[in-house]
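Standup notes, structure subgroup. Blocker cleared on the protoporphyrin IX containing FE input:
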Amino acid sequence: MSTFYDEVGGSALFADLVSAFYVRVAADPILRPMYPPGELRTAAEHLQKFLEQYFGGPTTYSDERGHPRLRMRHAGFHINPAARDSWLSCMKEAVEGLSIHEDKKDQLWRYFEMAAESLVNQLD
Ligand code: HEM
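Run returned:
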């Protein structure tokens, strides 16, 4: 049975998505300071592997990092509605730039909206 991961062309699509996303994060005044100084490659690799696993690709993320527990892993960052909106805005542009069917973009986008909302941990 084919998965979303297979249907969108596998790893290459997730590599494109994550690299377009982090180009925008690097220029975002709210998000950039939350990440470690220097290059964002490690953060990008983790996100790419996580998304590949989530959408039915290889389980490399959990093999290397264990259970995702995203809420716990984000607990140390100040994620208020403004940070959520910045994250989603970077991701929206990244998703829109992909060369995949609109239905697939919608599926990605619905997931990101839900996931980002679930990671808000500050209301200021
Ligand atoms: C809501 C706004 C969000 C903010 C501000 C945020 C911020 C961050 C930061 C600062 C890191 C640490 C990066 C590092 O130390 O190199 C991180 C890691 C990560 N984020 Fe987010 N994030 C957000 C939403 C999301 C969403 C929606 C997802 C999934 C769809 C996600 C998936 C991940 C993953 C997989 C990691 C790496 C975890 C690990 O294995 O250590 N994040 N995020």
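Discussed briefly. The two ends are 45 Å apart (CA to CA).
Next: hand off to the docking folks.
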